[in-house]
Amino acid sequence: MSKEQLDRLELLQGTLEMMILRTLLFGPTNGYQIAKVIEKMSDDALQVDHSSLYPALHRLEKKGWLISKWEDSDTGRRAKSYRLTKLGRKQLLIEQSKWDRLTSAIARVMRPA
Q1: Which CATH number applies to 3-110?
Q2: Of 3-7, 9-13, 63-67, which range is least confident?
Q3: Where are the domains of the chain?
């Protein structure tokens, strides 16, 4: 296993969905671009595997947190574009609040006063 592979972080269950919702706040985009934005924003510490990404996108769509439609991409190929719904925006606020509480609790355990 390379150092780069060792340095990559594993995602906690549910965090990918939260990051997808956050990424879509910037506007509608396709799955490939969602993965690239998450990787770039994490300074490449997080690698989004497509075998995890697309099932997560489908789950979010089923929950009504995003919608999708097929569009022509910049390269002329058809790509599914995902857009955050009003319900998805509300859910993102809930997920961010949970995340803040979780990371704060973990920090208290890992770095006690």
Answers
A1: 1.10.10.10
A2: 3-7
A3: 3-110
Q: Residue 113: which pLDDT band, with cuts at 50, 70 and 90?
A: confident
Q: Is 59 exposed, middle or buried (0-12, 13-18, 19+ CB in 10 A)?
A: middle
**Distance from C-alpha of 89 to C-alpha of 67, rounded to nearest angstrom:** 12
pLDDT (0 to 100) of residue 13: 66
pLDDT digits (tens, 9 = 90+) for 36-60: 999 999 999 999 999 999 999 999 9
Contacts of 67 (CB under 8 A, 6+ apart): 61, 82, 83, 85
Residue matched to tokens 């997080």:
46
What's the whole-number average pLDDT of the chain? Answer: 90
Whether residue 96 contacts residue 15, with contact meaning beta carbons closer than 8 Å, is answered with: no
Task: State the distance between the two ends of the chain, measured CA to CA, in whole angstroms.
Answer: 36
Written as one letter, the residue type at 20 is: I
What is the edge-to-edge ordering of all strands in the sheet holding 29-30? 29-30, 78-84, 66-72
Q: How many CA atoms lie within 13 A of 91 on its CB side?
A: 20
